[in-house]
Structure formats: structure tokens, C-alpha cells
Amino acid sequence: MWKSRAQRLTDSSGAMKKMQKNIRVLYFASDCAEPYVEIITVKDSKRRLSLCDSVESEVDETEFQEVEDDFPVLSHASQLLDDFHLQKIAANLPPRTQGYPWHLVYSTINHGSSLKTLYRNMADLDSPVLLVIRDMHKKVFGAFCSDPFRVSKYCYGTGETFLFSFNPDFQQYRWSGENSYFVSGNWESLQIGGGGAGFALWLDADLYHGASFSCPTFRNAPLSTNEDFIVQDVEVWTVQN
Questions:
Q1: Measured between alpha carbons, how far is 216 from 5 in angstroms, rounded to an integer?
Q2: What pTM does this model have?
Q3: What letter does residue 35 receive in the DSSP assignment?
Q4: N or C: which end of the chain has fewer CB within 10 A?
Q5: How wide is the angle at C-alpha 149 spanned by C-alphas 145 and 153, nearest 5°?
Q6: Domain boundaries in the chain?
């Protein structure tokens, strides 16, 4: 006896057959045959969706990933660092800082020229800092320090600390392992590196006079145009999540 589609989907009592959630009707081949069904698991369904999404977005992710990795997000516009500076410095930061935004902690333009203010602005920090200096000859240089600057009786920091300069190409000076005179600070000056005839980087209390010499800590060349220099501007950034 011929049965309608609705009749074929009912049981002997006339109640509608309850279709399983993982079965869907693709089509009825004819009026005298059971419908053609396909069993789809939840995993299959998700896999199909994720496959489509990944194919469509794969190119976009590839194109923009490099841009995001090379250029950090800054909390404020830098007056000293352009895109070239940012790209070179960011690429050489320790892995634990990669991908995190940079926050401006101190700048001579915003806070005036005072080492005391610089220390005060970092009093609550517990993250690495990036010191950027521009001298009167427009040369940009500085240091990445594993710890925020503070007044201390002893030297502090780790081997993550390094020096850099743009001359105009990027030059980096990492820890030599010869000594651990990374950073030392008092109310009269800030010093980075040492153990030789002078500091790798030295700034006075007014952040106006500075000096840079070769030293054993980093085996660096002088960072500034002249060993003794006049500071034009200073910025300090912290890299944290």
C-alpha cells in the first residue's frame, strides 16, 4: 500500500518517529523509499565550520601577524622613537616582554628634567623599563633594564639588561658576563654598566648632563655622539601586561 512521506515517518501507532539529533534528511529519493539520511556527529559539524573559518582567515592572519609582532602598541605617541626605532628595539626585547603594550612612565617633555621625578614615577613599578635618550646632536640611544630605576645602595638588574644606539643603524650591546654592574642609582645620578674607566651610561640629577664610555659590563662603544653629552630629551617606557 502506498504511504505518504508523513506516514513513512510515523510508527505503527501513528506517532511521529523522533529523529535523532545527529541525523538530518538530505532528500526523499521517491515517494516509495525511505529518505536518504546522513549521520553527522557534533565533532564533524564543528570540524566543518572550523575548516571553513580557517581557510578564509588563514591569509589574513599571515598578513597581519608580522605587523603586530614588529610594532608594539604604545600608550602615548613617542617624541623620540619612530617606526624604525620601534621595530628594531621590539625585535630584541626578552621573550617575556614580547607582545605586551608599552606604557610611558616618564618623559622630560611631560614631567620636566628631574631624576627625582623619574624615580618617583617608578616607585610602584615591578616590570622592565626602556630608557631612551636623544642628545643635542639628535642621536638616539639608551638601555633596556630588567628592573625599574630606583635609589639603591647596591647594583641591581639581570643579564636581560642591554644597551642600544642608532648610528644611524641599530647597534646592541648585551651583557658580557664579566661583571654584574647593571644599574645603580642615587639622588645625584643614574648609572648603567661599569667596572672600567667610566659608566656605559651616566645621567646627572637634572637629566641635563650625561656621559657614555666603553665598559666591561657590556663591552660597548660609547653610545652618544661624544663621551660627554648634553641631553635634549628623555623617555622611559615600561613593558608590562
A1: 89
A2: 0.71
A3: P
A4: N
A5: 110
A6: 83-239
